[in-house]
Write a structure and sequence with these properties.
binds uridine-5'-diphosphate-xylopyranose; 2 domains; Rossmann fold; 6-stranded parallel β-sheet; alpha/beta; single chain
Amino acid sequence: MVEAERMRVSVIGTGYLGATTAACLAEMGFEVLGVDVDEAKVDMLRQGRLPFFEPGLDELLSENLPTGRLRFTTSFAEAAEFADLHLICVGTPQMDDSGAADLSYVNSAVDQLAPHLTRPSVVVGRSTVPVGTAATLAARLASLAPVGDEAELGWSPEFLREGFGVEDTLHPNRIVIGTDSPRVEKAVRALWQQQIDEGVPFLVTDLQTAELVKVSANAFLATKISFINAMAEVSEVAGADVIKLAEALSHDDRIGGKFLGPGLGFGGGCLPKDIRAFMARADELGVEPALSFLREVDAINQRRRARTIDIARQLIGGNFAGRTVAVLGAAFKPNSDDIRDSPALAVASTIASLGAHVTVYDPQAMDRAREEHPQLNYAPTLRDAAAGADVVLLLTEWAEFKEANPENLAEVVAQRKMVDGRNALDPTYWRSSGWTYRALGRQ
Ligand code: UDX
């Protein structure tokens, strides 16, 4: 801990990844300076307020700010003066006109930091980038830094899941660092010494392998979800039950049960854009066929949204026009207020565009949803959202929805019709309360 207390780290980018990383490192005993170009965000964080919802993170922020171990700034000069280790945690969203990753924030982080590096420094990227990016950035860093190639760059991808960001940062399942520099490796080892001592695997690779670990992990997870969703498509027409099927598959420990949950499919700021950026990069590298299966993974995922809408349409007699529809869930998954590529909002807005009166309720993501989809209606509670509904769709599996009482809800709806887009409810229980229950991949 004494060693850790001496180490000073700057964390560039204070979005989901950066703010979580900064607060967790402060909690671990490091002196941390979070850097962002967005003054409003930096002001909020200085006041102990998070610009997004993440369980457990607000406590870490408010506990560590008063200790002085965690501070925030907009000044790259201050960051360079303060720390010898800089972590790049900015976003790499999908570009509007193609599936490729937008690297402008990563490039700009290096461009803004480098001119201030007047003593030997280590810069480590944590953002998800296309393979080959880090080597280019390493050269750019050395060419822009006054200290030249004594400013060294490594790449150490993160694997945190939203909703579990604190847990996944403090107790990662592996630490990967791509570098051939002993100094970079030493700095990253020092950063995660507590975790390494606890037995967390520490893997040193070249830059390209480290970049690939992240995108291939997300490609694998997306493929696993789409695999079981493809089985759901087959199950529906073949008269099988995909939930029982998934359960039976999961007992084979070569397959395992995680990420084998059939339903509306994946969304969020990572899996969808990461598989598209991966395909775009494979194309550039001339190995497009190697990843063409990911196109199918994406297509299966999109079809789940269309199928969910079809099931709801069938339930209400074939036409949404003038009907009242309740949508439970706006976030792309529970325990998050993130609505990026949210399957729930994609379904809700399509149904609204088909003429239905759609009312959405989500325990955390209402403000963000309202901003992006002002054409939808929003209710303050689950019960209010369901009032007068001809059909209710459960599209994000929040605990509140899983625990909903079918008898109570029946009192307010116009018709007892439930589309369970996440296979989150017990069909027998709901049917026994007089509901027509439909789900993806089941009879
Ligand atoms: C993902 C990776 O898990 C994480 O390692 C990486 O760092 C970032 O991307 P995240 O986007 O937070 O994390 O969400 P995740 O928990 O992976 O879920 C992604 C999507 O898949 C969600 O929309 C979720 O609802 C869906 N999902 C997940 C399924 O549809 N079925 C499953 O069985 C699991």
